[in-house]
Design a protein that fits this description.
298 residues; alpha/beta; UDP-N-acetylmuramoyl-L-alanine:D-glutamate ligase; 36% helix; globular
Length: 298
Amino acid sequence: MPTPTYLSIGSIFIDDIVYPDGRTDMEILGGGGVHTAAGMSVWEERAGLVASMGTGMPEAAAARIERDFDSQGVVHLDIPQMRAWQVFEWDGKRTELFRVKEIDPFMRAPRPGEIPASYSPAQAVSILRDAEDFLAWRAVFPQATVFWEPEQMFMEPQNSAAFRAALPQADIVSPNRLEASLVYGFDDVHRLLDAMLTDGAKVVALRLGEEGSWVASADERLHIPIVPVPQVVDVTGAGNTYCGGFLVGWQRTHDLRTAGCYGAVAASFAIESVGVLKLPTPEERDRRYQALHEITAH
Protein backbone atom coordinates (compact mmCIF):
# COMPACT_ATOMS: atom_id res chain seq x y z
CA MET A 1 0.00 0.00 0.00
CA PRO A 2 1.49 3.41 -0.94
CA THR A 3 2.77 5.58 1.90
CA PRO A 4 0.62 8.71 2.26
CA THR A 5 2.47 11.97 1.71
CA TYR A 6 -0.10 13.84 3.82
CA LEU A 7 -1.65 12.94 7.17
CA SER A 8 -4.72 14.39 8.88
CA ILE A 9 -4.75 13.89 12.65
CA GLY A 10 -8.17 14.73 14.02
CA SER A 11 -11.58 13.23 14.67
CA ILE A 12 -14.39 11.32 13.00
CA PHE A 13 -17.91 12.49 13.87
CA ILE A 14 -21.37 11.53 12.81
CA ASP A 15 -23.44 14.71 12.60
CA ASP A 16 -27.20 14.99 12.86
CA ILE A 17 -27.89 18.41 11.36
CA VAL A 18 -30.90 20.57 12.24
CA TYR A 19 -31.54 23.62 10.05
CA PRO A 20 -33.41 26.79 11.13
CA ASP A 21 -36.49 25.83 9.14
CA GLY A 22 -36.75 22.46 10.89
CA ARG A 23 -35.25 20.32 8.13
CA THR A 24 -32.77 17.66 9.20
CA ASP A 25 -29.98 15.63 7.67
CA MET A 26 -29.12 12.58 9.75
CA GLU A 27 -26.08 10.30 9.94
CA ILE A 28 -23.81 12.70 8.07
CA LEU A 29 -20.09 11.94 8.05
CA GLY A 30 -18.10 14.73 9.65
CA GLY A 31 -15.33 15.44 12.13
CA GLY A 32 -12.41 17.81 11.81
CA GLY A 33 -9.92 15.18 10.72
CA VAL A 34 -12.21 13.95 7.95
CA HIS A 35 -12.99 17.46 6.67
CA THR A 36 -9.27 18.33 6.65
CA ALA A 37 -8.43 15.17 4.72
CA ALA A 38 -11.23 16.02 2.25
CA GLY A 39 -9.63 19.43 1.69
CA MET A 40 -6.46 17.62 0.70
CA SER A 41 -8.39 15.30 -1.61
CA VAL A 42 -9.70 18.28 -3.59
CA TRP A 43 -6.08 18.62 -4.74
CA GLU A 44 -5.75 14.90 -5.51
CA GLU A 45 -3.91 13.91 -2.35
CA ARG A 46 -5.18 10.73 -0.67
CA ALA A 47 -4.41 11.56 2.95
CA GLY A 48 -3.75 9.16 5.76
CA LEU A 49 -6.49 9.63 8.36
CA VAL A 50 -5.39 9.38 12.00
CA ALA A 51 -8.52 9.22 14.15
CA SER A 52 -10.69 6.88 16.20
CA MET A 53 -13.92 5.16 15.20
CA GLY A 54 -16.49 3.62 17.55
CA THR A 55 -19.24 1.06 17.25
CA GLY A 56 -22.45 1.69 15.35
CA MET A 57 -20.79 3.56 12.52
CA PRO A 58 -23.25 4.09 9.64
CA GLU A 59 -22.30 1.88 6.69
CA ALA A 60 -22.25 4.73 4.18
CA ALA A 61 -19.92 6.80 6.34
CA ALA A 62 -17.54 3.90 6.93
CA ALA A 63 -17.50 3.15 3.21
CA ARG A 64 -16.69 6.78 2.38
CA ILE A 65 -13.69 6.72 4.72
CA GLU A 66 -12.35 3.55 3.12
CA ARG A 67 -12.91 4.90 -0.40
CA ASP A 68 -11.48 8.40 -0.12
CA PHE A 69 -8.75 8.18 2.54
CA ASP A 70 -5.97 5.90 3.70
CA SER A 71 -7.46 4.39 6.86
CA GLN A 72 -4.46 2.51 8.28
CA GLY A 73 -4.28 5.16 11.00
CA VAL A 74 -7.90 4.73 12.15
CA VAL A 75 -8.17 2.93 15.48
CA HIS A 76 -11.38 1.15 16.47
CA LEU A 77 -12.85 1.71 19.93
CA ASP A 78 -15.37 -0.53 21.67
CA ILE A 79 -17.66 2.37 22.61
CA PRO A 80 -20.48 4.08 20.69
CA GLN A 81 -19.33 6.21 17.78
CA MET A 82 -19.00 9.96 18.48
CA ARG A 83 -22.22 11.61 17.38
CA ALA A 84 -23.52 15.16 17.76
CA TRP A 85 -26.45 17.39 16.93
CA GLN A 86 -25.38 20.37 14.82
CA VAL A 87 -28.15 22.92 15.34
CA PHE A 88 -28.13 25.98 13.07
CA GLU A 89 -29.88 29.31 13.67
CA TRP A 90 -31.03 31.79 11.01
CA ASP A 91 -28.03 34.04 11.74
CA GLY A 92 -25.60 31.21 10.99
CA LYS A 93 -24.81 30.37 14.62
CA ARG A 94 -24.13 26.68 15.18
CA THR A 95 -24.64 24.82 18.46
CA GLU A 96 -22.99 21.41 18.85
CA LEU A 97 -24.63 18.97 21.27
CA PHE A 98 -22.91 15.65 21.88
CA ARG A 99 -25.15 12.59 21.81
CA VAL A 100 -22.81 10.07 23.45
CA LYS A 101 -21.43 9.85 26.99
CA GLU A 102 -17.79 9.14 26.13
CA ILE A 103 -16.25 11.99 24.16
CA ASP A 104 -12.61 12.25 25.20
CA PRO A 105 -11.38 9.05 23.46
CA PHE A 106 -12.53 10.46 20.11
CA MET A 107 -10.75 13.75 20.76
CA ARG A 108 -7.47 12.22 21.97
CA ALA A 109 -7.06 8.81 20.30
CA PRO A 110 -4.98 7.49 18.76
CA ARG A 111 -1.87 8.53 20.64
CA PRO A 112 1.45 9.20 18.86
CA GLY A 113 2.80 5.71 19.53
CA GLU A 114 -0.21 4.01 17.97
CA ILE A 115 0.15 4.94 14.30
CA PRO A 116 1.42 2.50 11.67
CA ALA A 117 5.12 2.63 10.86
CA SER A 118 4.21 3.32 7.23
CA TYR A 119 3.07 6.82 8.27
CA SER A 120 6.45 7.86 9.68
CA PRO A 121 7.85 9.20 6.34
CA ALA A 122 4.88 11.55 5.82
CA GLN A 123 6.00 14.91 4.44
CA ALA A 124 3.10 17.12 5.60
CA VAL A 125 0.93 16.62 8.67
CA SER A 126 -2.18 18.48 9.86
CA ILE A 127 -2.81 18.25 13.60
CA LEU A 128 -6.18 19.19 15.13
CA ARG A 129 -5.41 18.96 18.84
CA ASP A 130 -4.74 21.06 21.92
CA ALA A 131 -1.22 22.34 22.65
CA GLU A 132 -0.10 19.35 24.71
CA ASP A 133 -1.12 16.81 22.08
CA PHE A 134 0.15 19.00 19.27
CA LEU A 135 3.64 19.05 20.80
CA ALA A 136 3.57 15.27 21.30
CA TRP A 137 2.68 14.73 17.63
CA ARG A 138 5.19 17.34 16.46
CA ALA A 139 7.95 15.26 18.04
CA VAL A 140 6.89 12.24 15.95
CA PHE A 141 7.34 14.16 12.68
CA PRO A 142 10.45 16.32 13.18
CA GLN A 143 11.19 16.62 9.46
CA ALA A 144 7.65 17.09 8.15
CA THR A 145 5.80 20.32 7.47
CA VAL A 146 3.40 20.50 10.40
CA PHE A 147 0.14 22.45 10.28
CA TRP A 148 -1.54 23.14 13.63
CA GLU A 149 -5.26 23.82 13.75
CA PRO A 150 -5.85 24.37 17.48
CA GLU A 151 -8.80 22.47 18.87
CA GLN A 152 -11.78 24.78 19.38
CA MET A 153 -12.41 23.75 23.00
CA PHE A 154 -8.76 24.47 23.85
CA MET A 155 -8.87 28.07 22.59
CA GLU A 156 -9.95 29.73 25.83
CA PRO A 157 -8.34 32.59 27.80
CA GLN A 158 -6.96 30.24 30.46
CA ASN A 159 -4.96 28.41 27.78
CA SER A 160 -3.35 31.51 26.29
CA ALA A 161 0.11 30.78 27.69
CA ALA A 162 0.06 27.17 26.46
CA PHE A 163 -1.05 28.23 22.98
CA ARG A 164 1.62 30.91 22.71
CA ALA A 165 4.37 28.65 24.01
CA ALA A 166 3.59 25.99 21.40
CA LEU A 167 3.55 28.35 18.40
CA PRO A 168 7.29 28.13 17.58
CA GLN A 169 6.90 24.39 16.94
CA ALA A 170 4.28 24.91 14.21
CA ASP A 171 5.27 25.50 10.60
CA ILE A 172 1.74 26.85 10.01
CA VAL A 173 -0.94 27.76 12.54
CA SER A 174 -4.59 28.40 11.69
CA PRO A 175 -7.11 29.43 14.33
CA ASN A 176 -10.25 31.28 13.37
CA ARG A 177 -10.68 34.89 14.43
CA LEU A 178 -12.89 34.16 17.44
CA GLU A 179 -10.53 31.50 18.76
CA ALA A 180 -7.49 33.77 18.39
CA SER A 181 -9.30 36.67 20.05
CA LEU A 182 -10.15 34.53 23.08
CA VAL A 183 -6.52 33.69 23.78
CA TYR A 184 -5.13 37.17 23.05
CA GLY A 185 -7.91 39.35 24.41
CA PHE A 186 -8.52 41.45 21.27
CA ASP A 187 -9.98 40.78 17.82
CA ASP A 188 -8.23 43.19 15.45
CA VAL A 189 -7.00 41.06 12.55
CA HIS A 190 -3.61 42.66 12.11
CA ARG A 191 -2.87 42.76 15.83
CA LEU A 192 -3.69 39.04 15.99
CA LEU A 193 -1.39 38.28 13.06
CA ASP A 194 1.38 40.38 14.62
CA ALA A 195 0.92 38.65 17.98
CA MET A 196 1.15 35.13 16.58
CA LEU A 197 4.19 35.96 14.45
CA THR A 198 5.87 37.64 17.43
CA ASP A 199 5.17 34.57 19.54
CA GLY A 200 7.04 32.41 17.05
CA ALA A 201 4.58 31.33 14.37
CA LYS A 202 6.28 31.02 10.98
CA VAL A 203 3.12 31.16 8.86
CA VAL A 204 -0.36 32.18 10.03
CA ALA A 205 -3.65 31.52 8.24
CA LEU A 206 -6.29 33.41 10.22
CA ARG A 207 -9.74 32.24 9.15
CA LEU A 208 -12.60 34.77 9.08
CA GLY A 209 -15.57 32.76 7.81
CA GLU A 210 -17.47 34.61 5.10
CA GLU A 211 -14.83 37.35 5.17
CA GLY A 212 -12.22 34.91 3.86
CA SER A 213 -8.81 34.67 5.51
CA TRP A 214 -5.64 36.62 6.14
CA VAL A 215 -2.39 34.77 5.53
CA ALA A 216 0.90 36.07 6.84
CA SER A 217 4.58 35.41 7.39
CA ALA A 218 7.32 37.73 8.58
CA ASP A 219 7.79 38.98 5.00
CA GLU A 220 4.29 39.02 3.50
CA ARG A 221 0.65 39.53 4.41
CA LEU A 222 -2.44 39.34 2.23
CA HIS A 223 -6.19 38.85 2.27
CA ILE A 224 -7.74 35.82 0.57
CA PRO A 225 -11.46 36.32 -0.15
CA ILE A 226 -13.95 33.47 -0.24
CA VAL A 227 -14.91 31.85 -3.52
CA PRO A 228 -18.53 32.76 -4.38
CA VAL A 229 -20.78 29.73 -4.86
CA PRO A 230 -24.32 29.51 -6.28
CA GLN A 231 -25.79 28.21 -3.01
CA VAL A 232 -24.42 27.74 0.49
CA VAL A 233 -25.76 24.42 1.75
CA ASP A 234 -23.81 23.58 4.94
CA VAL A 235 -20.84 25.44 6.43
CA THR A 236 -19.93 22.67 8.89
CA GLY A 237 -16.27 21.75 8.44
CA ALA A 238 -15.46 24.50 5.95
CA GLY A 239 -12.63 25.78 8.14
CA ASN A 240 -11.10 22.33 8.47
CA THR A 241 -11.40 21.83 4.72
CA TYR A 242 -9.62 25.15 4.16
CA CYS A 243 -6.78 23.92 6.37
CA GLY A 244 -6.32 20.74 4.34
CA GLY A 245 -6.25 22.66 1.08
CA PHE A 246 -3.86 25.28 2.47
CA LEU A 247 -1.37 22.64 3.60
CA VAL A 248 -1.27 21.06 0.13
CA GLY A 249 -0.76 24.45 -1.51
CA TRP A 250 1.99 25.41 0.91
CA GLN A 251 3.77 22.07 0.69
CA ARG A 252 3.80 22.23 -3.11
CA THR A 253 4.81 25.87 -3.56
CA HIS A 254 5.75 27.58 -0.25
CA ASP A 255 3.83 30.57 -1.61
CA LEU A 256 1.29 32.28 0.67
CA ARG A 257 -1.06 33.40 -2.09
CA THR A 258 -1.16 29.98 -3.70
CA ALA A 259 -1.69 28.19 -0.40
CA GLY A 260 -4.47 30.58 0.61
CA CYS A 261 -6.20 30.08 -2.72
CA TYR A 262 -5.89 26.29 -2.41
CA GLY A 263 -7.58 26.53 0.99
CA ALA A 264 -10.35 28.88 -0.13
CA VAL A 265 -11.16 26.79 -3.19
CA ALA A 266 -11.38 23.61 -1.12
CA ALA A 267 -13.66 25.37 1.38
CA SER A 268 -15.94 26.55 -1.44
CA PHE A 269 -16.78 22.96 -2.30
CA ALA A 270 -17.32 22.12 1.37
CA ILE A 271 -20.08 24.71 1.81
CA GLU A 272 -21.91 23.37 -1.26
CA SER A 273 -22.28 19.92 0.30
CA VAL A 274 -24.05 18.47 3.31
CA GLY A 275 -21.27 17.06 5.46
CA VAL A 276 -17.96 16.12 3.88
CA LEU A 277 -17.59 17.70 0.46
CA LYS A 278 -18.39 16.00 -2.81
CA LEU A 279 -15.23 15.86 -4.86
CA PRO A 280 -15.30 18.40 -7.70
CA THR A 281 -14.14 17.90 -11.24
CA PRO A 282 -10.57 19.06 -11.83
CA GLU A 283 -11.90 21.51 -14.41
CA GLU A 284 -14.21 23.30 -11.95
CA ARG A 285 -11.57 23.25 -9.23
CA ASP A 286 -8.98 24.80 -11.53
CA ARG A 287 -11.46 27.38 -12.83
CA ARG A 288 -12.18 28.59 -9.31
CA TYR A 289 -8.50 28.60 -8.46
CA GLN A 290 -7.49 30.65 -11.49
CA ALA A 291 -10.23 33.21 -10.85
CA LEU A 292 -9.30 33.60 -7.20
CA HIS A 293 -5.57 33.70 -7.84
CA GLU A 294 -6.07 36.47 -10.37
CA ILE A 295 -8.20 38.50 -7.95
CA THR A 296 -5.62 38.22 -5.16
CA ALA A 297 -2.78 39.22 -7.46
CA HIS A 298 -4.07 42.81 -7.69
